[in-house]
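In this supplementary section we document a worked example of the pipeline. Step one takes a protein sequence of length 297 as its only input; no multiple sequence alignment statistics are reported here. Step two produces a three-dimensional model, which step three serialises into structure tokens for compact storage. The input and output of this example are shown verbatim.
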Amino acid sequence: MTLEATVGTSVAPARVRQLWHLLEPLHSVLYYAPEAFEEAAALGYDVSDRWPSYFAWRAAALGPVGAERVTSAFYTFSPEKVARHVPAAWEVATPADVLAGRLRAVDRAYRTILGEELLASPGIAEAAALARRAAEAAPTAGRPMAAAHAELPWPDAPHLVLWQAATILREHRGDGHLAALVTAGLDPVESLVSFAAVGAAAEATFQTRGWSAADWSAARARLAARGLVHADGTATDAGRALRAEVELRTDELAAAPWVALGAEATARLDELLGGPWLTIVGSGLLPSENTLGIGKV
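The serialised model returned by step three reads:
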């Protein structure tokens, strides 16, 4: 899995993206594991679909915030979808209770997927320490989701430290990605339409973000007027170039933790996480297609 980092004070964008691909599954078990739905149900959330618990799990670090702040921080979700779940989530359980519940959920899910022996191994402890070093080096200025998670106390168990570090790092990257989208002049729904246009995932996958058919069509028309998509919704050369620029800028903005960790320690973390990554991805727990475009872009 190892790609070579550039020398000096930078890290190759491809390397930064690869590290995200490595860490994202470790974080995302929270949204799909049966143990997470059980913990959400115990808190009182409707688990007939994943969205009530998703919004609670992910937004809890922000505190008892309202829909406007969550819509801003999550960006690509429609305001209407967010408003169906926030601030109602805090009437079911407090953010503090949700944060405790999600650690219980991850603890149980990791024990099921990865096994007790691996979680107690020196390798997991070493990986957790390295990932924490990277996460603590992530700059949080202008990054509300990363900052909210960076303020949380660290858990004691190494595998939970690893999960929390992966969460800080993915939210740090996500905050930077939103900055890149805004700089590119892509509003929330245009961001999804343009990503679907380059084949990151099927349009149906992006429809989980809650935008109506009219919203989607209007965004496509705006992108077409800018010469970014064809009439059939596929990206033009200009559209592909703009999305490539967004992804490159995202990688660049996500590099600081890995520069701070250093090439040798980063390579060691890569080595240590290869096995757990394969186990989680191979478990079939996570969807094969997602709105992040992992494996496609």
